[in-house]
Design a protein that fits this description.
Elements lengths: L3 E6 L3 H16 L3 E2 L8 E6 L4 H20 L4 E6 H6 L2 H5 L5 E3 L7 H11 L2 E3 L12 H5 L8 E5 L1 E2 L10 H5 L3 E2 L2 H13 L4 E5 L17 H9 L6 E5 L8 H9 L6 E3 L7 H6 L6 H14 L4 E8 L6 H14 L3 E6 L18 H24 L5 E9 L7 E4 L5 E5 L11 E9 L4 E10 L12
Parallel strand pairs: 1-2, 1-3, 3-4, 4-5, 5-6, 7-10, 10-11, 12-13, 13-14, 17-19
Antiparallel strand pairs: 8-9, 15-16, 15-18, 16-17, 18-19
Helix pairs in contact: 9-10, 13-14
The protein binds S-adenosyl-L-homocysteine (SAH), iron/sulfur cluster (SF4) and FE3-S4 cluster.
S-adenosyl-L-homocysteine (SAH) binds next to strand 13.
Length: 462
């Protein structure tokens, strides 16, 4: 009987996509996916270490799994991803019942190491640089077992060449490596043939895509144009661009290529120039706002979201007020706000003298949230009465009779579908917005524009 595997994902979209690629690899190795821990022979934890609570969650989960494994001795546990890369053998020191530890550069080794661990005991394999044959092999992405049928993630670049003082990503993911443009276009074509209508291009710094391919000249705008004109790909999204690298050619491609969505996730991180400089972000608040204005001028009705960190070491009340002011001026549609978390080996983690008091951080976090919620709600209320062309994700999680869909800005819309076709993943529907809530919109169906052309099963192989 085929072995069953279960994958839990702890990190960002790139980490989620790595899990899909891992699943494809395990299926190719003869295993079957399961969602049920009781019946799983192999449990893979694909980890994250961006903030301390991500570490804690993983070791908490491993603690629970110790009990499960004690009752099921044949079960194997693999830990993959960023926390493995950071903690290496340390994962086994803290959780000796783990069978395989694989880092970020050699995802492709996981299936082989699981087999080896059966006879040879625990395996730890961490590389210090990407394995070009392994991790970025196009077949890994083409064979990925994707959760959604109409949308797909595409990792266009791994690693990061920046040196943000708080961030652990460069040390776990390594330097930037761009996948060849031809591989990516081919991948988009295959996905489109399988019925995927929307792709999201992933990278830590997507708009520097290609700097390592042609002598430091980014190719991101060209990539947007090429992927955006692949037959059958109706929507292209990307995350995240870095403000310092956002160039007119990228926003021009966004404006000119119909398929590229009116959506920009542009991480601000802080509004104080002192803090931005200490963070090594490479822009001032003024420059950030100029870049945003450039994007909004070029792309009408652009939805803008951001990331902001509260409590970076040395952040004063005056610094924080600047963050509030810039956030208010930027009028974000929504923001991911994070409390600064010291990460081992980063510059900011060593600035202990300047750590901000947790109560002060808590208070600032709530004040920032209020500012972002206000602009988000105003943006959503302003959409009432508009007819939006949305792509259906499927039934809403809370109520199966209600459809969940996304606007081109990436906003979630709930509406009552007129028929089963308007509830089908990938269908395109015109919806009139009737209500703007802080985190989603509500609407009523105007017309089904078209159902999905390809009725597709979850495909595993190309
Ligand atoms: N490469 C992306 C971000 C990846 S991490 C970019 O630069 O846009 C996602 C977000 O996590 C970051 O934008 C930042 O806001 C937050 N983050 C990263 N390190 C953090 C830390 N040590 N503490 C708190 N938040 C952090
Ligand atoms: Fe981290 Fe900065 Fe790179 Fe983003 S750009 S991954 S925040 S170092
Ligand atoms: Fe986490 Fe690694 Fe992504 S640290 S945020 S899973 S790149």
């Amino acid at each position: 009987m085929a072995k069953k595997f279960l994958i839990r994902t702890f990190g960002c979209q790139m980490n989620e996509h790595d899990s899909e690629r891992l699943a494809g690899m395990l299926v190719a190795d003869g295993m079957e996916p399961t969602e049920d821990l009781e019946s799983a022979d192999v449990v893979v934890l694909n980890t994250c270490c961006i903030r301390e609570n991500a570490d804690n969650r993983l070791y908490g989960t491993l603690g629970h799994l110790a009990t499960t494994k004690a009752e099921k001795p044949g079960m194997q546990i693999a830990v993959t991803g960023c926390l493995s890369q950071k903690d290496r053998e340390g994962v086994l020191d803290r959780a000796g019942w783990v069978d395989v530890v694989v880092g970020t550069h050699n995802l492709g080794s996981t299936a082989g190491l699981l087999r080896k661990a059966v006879t040879d005991g625990p395996q730890v394999e961490i590389l210090d640089a990407p394995d070009p044959e392994g991790d970025l092999d196009p077949s890994l992405a083409l064979n990925a077992v994707r959760e959604a049928s109409h949308t797909a993630w595409m990792t266009i670049q791994t690693g990061c060449d920046n040196t943000c003082a708080y961030c652990i990503v460069p040390s776990v993911r390594g330097g930037e490596v761009s996948r060849p443009i031809d591989d990516l276009v081919r991948e988009a074509e295959v996905l489109a043939r399988r019925g995927v209508r929307e792709v999201t291009l992933l990278g830590q710094n997507v708009n520097s895509y290609g700097r390592d391919i042609t002598k430091r000249s980014p190719l991101f705008a060209q990539l947007l144009r090429e992927i955006g004109t692949v037959d059958g790909i109706e929507r292209v999204r990307f995350t995240s661009p870095h403000p310092k690298d956002l160039r007119p050619d990228t926003v021009a491609a966004m404006a000119e290529v119909d398929a590229v969505c009116n959506q920009l996730h542009l991480p601000l991180q802080a509004g104080s120039n002192t803090v931005l400089s200490a963070m090594h972000r490479g822009y001032t608040a003024e420059r950030y706002l100029e870049k945003l204005a450039m994007a909004r001028d070029a792309v009408p009705d652009l939805g803008v979201t951001t990331d902001i960190i509260v409590g970076f070491p040395g952040e004063t009340e005056a610094d924080f007020e600047q963050t509030l002011a810039v956030a208010a001026e930027a009028e974000f549609d929504s923001a991911f706000t994070f409390i600064f978390s010291p990460r081992p080996g980063t510059q900011a983690a060593a600035m202990t003298e300047q750590f901000v008091d947790p109560d002060v951080i808590g208070d600032r976090f709530a004040r920032l949230d209020a500012v972002v919620q206000r602009s988000g709600l105003l943006k959503h209320e302003a959409r009432v009465g508009m007819v939006e062309r949305v792509m259906v994700e499927g039934p809403s999680r809370r109520n199966g009779d209600v459809a969940a869909a996304r606007t081109t800005q990436g906003k979630l819309v709930h509406y009552a579908p007129h028929d089963a076709q308007a509830l089908q993943a990938g269908a395109i529907v015109d919806v009139k917005i009737t209500h703007g809530a802080p985190h989603h919109l509500e609407g009523e169906q105007v017309a089904l524009v078209e159902p999905t052309r390809v009725k597709r099963r979850l495909e595993v192989r190309s």
